[in-house]
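Supplementary Methods. Inverse-folding protocol.

Structures were first reduced to a discrete structure-token string of length 509. This string, shown here, constituted the complete conditioning input.
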């Protein structure tokens, strides 16, 4: 029987605690107190991450005839970032609290007027959360009670801090102190990390860590066209690290300062039906998320408002995931027109046009861009997979089983091999032989320490879909069979070695 869902905050705490306890994710530089916005992936975490990447690469690149892969450098010529518009405009609106010295993103800070009897009595504020409107409502009721304001509170109208007027700003309380008067008006903050390349440390050596992998695909568009046999429509894909000096990294690995992206630029003819191509890629991304085990009921689509799109963008749709801290962007699928190739053509003086045999005209292709963060998928799969289940054993004793219902495609360990007893050589020898054989093809784990029930629980907690127990029937019975125990149902059955390999082959790829 499953427990009712824990509260969102508790669920997040449990996931962070499991991630640390079992070696999925550690805070970076923890012995020095940690470094905000940076994380390390432990032995199990790196396997999970690698499996997510490999699944994407297999499905996006290897199994498609129209997409090729590349890997470009993290530090590119600074002119790339001038032409792409990042140097001038890759900014987030920053608000300072002059008293606490804390900084907030103005688009993640919300406020509301407290209106009683048609008169504004003050303002309340809250940072974006799973229930920002609820927090503002509670704060408004508290203010009314504390100040003994008589009359009926008008319904709260939530506004982003970016919309605050100069008259309102001094009256809005800082979320850090609870008092008004310390918040500054929003100002643009460029999120690119700067560095210097070469021996000189002056303006001429100024360079940047890339804030997205996408520009690599635009800058290498011509070399790829010239060296491969790609024909429109075709895509160029890349997986790699990106860096953003986020004002408020938060929600564990959801928004960090160093993260990994999986992006693909799909180039189409300038006259192609971009809306159909856009829709097809949204569907592809959705189906891919289901294929790695994310349930459809935690996913949704969000179309960006046309009025808020960048001028070159024709449309953007995000696939959203219901994280414990709210519904948030997981994967953005943008129709970017031909802005990037045009910009690089103009800035470099090297045209990015290609020749169209059919019309005998030259043109710059347009692009559809599905862009997703590995770390956001990692967190989404942990959140969707985590369950605390109450189970009752044969003797009527109940206990809580923590289990990660990870898809076998991405589970860090696919199969654990467990000899029933540690001190019976026939059992351990047979188990080790099987383990060594499995290890050549699958991520396998050997464990002989402790009671068999406890060993099953240890595997449940890290999401291992199958455990194989080598017991007395294996060595004494007919047919060299093992007990196969399935994680989700806990059902057990006997299988032979070929049956075990066939099952793993089918489930893992
Ligand atoms: N080339 C387009 C681009 O980079 P984006 O929406 O800024 O678009 C794409 O980023 C994806 O990268 C996001 O949907 C998210 O999954 C991931 N991402 C962006 N910023 C991130 C951060 N600070 N931490 C973790 N993942 C991030």
């Amino acid at each position: 029987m499953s427990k009712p869902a824990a509260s969102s905050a508790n669920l997040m705490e449990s996931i962070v605690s499991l991630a640390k306890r079992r070696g999925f994710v550690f805070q970076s530089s923890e012995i020095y107190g940690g470094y905000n916005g940076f994380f390390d992936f432990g032995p199990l975490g790196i396997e999970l991450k690698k499996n997510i990447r490999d699944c994407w690469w297999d499905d996006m690149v290897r199994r498609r005839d129209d997409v090729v892969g590349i890997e470009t450098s993290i530090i590119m010529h600074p002119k790339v970032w001038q032409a792409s518009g990042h140097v001038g405009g890759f900014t987030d609106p920053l608000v300072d609290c002059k008293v606490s010295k804390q900084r907030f993103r103005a688009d993640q800070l919300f406020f509301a007027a407290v209106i009683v009897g048609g008169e504004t009595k003050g303002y309340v504020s809250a940072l974006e959360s799973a229930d920002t409107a609820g927090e503002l409502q509670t704060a408004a009721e508290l203010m009314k009670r504390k100040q003994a304001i008589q009359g009926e509170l008008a319904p709260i109208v939530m506004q982003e801090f970016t919309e605050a007027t100069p008259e309102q700003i001094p009256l809005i309380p800082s979320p850090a102190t609870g008092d008004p008067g310390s918040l500054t008006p929003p100002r643009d903050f460029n999120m690119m990390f700067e560095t210097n390349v070469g021996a000189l440390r002056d303006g001429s050596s100024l360079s940047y860590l890339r804030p997205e992998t996408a520009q690599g695909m635009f800058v290498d568009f011509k070399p790829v066209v010239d060296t491969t046999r790609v024909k429109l429509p075709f895509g160029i894909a890349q997986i790699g690290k990106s860096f953003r000096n986020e004002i408020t990294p938060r929600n564990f690995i959801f928004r960090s300062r160093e993260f990994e992206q999986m992006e693909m630029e799909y180039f189409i003819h300038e006259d192609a039906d971009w809306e159909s191509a856009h829709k097809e890629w949204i569907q592809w991304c959705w189906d891919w998320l289901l294929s790695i085990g994310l349930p459809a009921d935690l996913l949704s689509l969000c179309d960006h408002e046309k009025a808020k799109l960048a001028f070159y963008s024709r449309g953007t749709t995000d696939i959203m995931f219901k994280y414990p801290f709210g519904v948030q962007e997981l994967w953005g699928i943008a129709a970017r027109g031909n802005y990037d190739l045009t910009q690089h053509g103009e800035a470099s003086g090297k045209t990015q046009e290609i020749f169209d045999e059919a019309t005998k005209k030259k043109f710059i292709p347009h692009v559809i861009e599905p862009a997703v963060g590995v770390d956001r998928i990692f967190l989404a799969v942990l959140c969707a997979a985590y369950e605390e289940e109450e189970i009752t054993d044969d003797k009527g004793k109940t206990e809580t089983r923590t289990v990660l219902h990870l898809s076998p495609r991405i589970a860090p360990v696919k199969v654990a091999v467990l000899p029933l007893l540690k001190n019976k050589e026939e059992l351990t020898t047979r188990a080790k032989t099987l383990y060594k054989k499995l290890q050549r093809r699958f991520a396998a784990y050997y464990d002989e320490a402790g009671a068999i029930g406890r060993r099953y629980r240890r595997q449940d907690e890290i999401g291992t879909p199958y455990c194989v127990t080598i017991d007395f029937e294996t060595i004494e019975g007919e047919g060299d069979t093992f007990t196969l125990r399935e994680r989700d149902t806990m059902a057990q059955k006997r299988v032979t070695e070929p049956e075990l390999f066939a099952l793993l082959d089918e489930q893992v790829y």
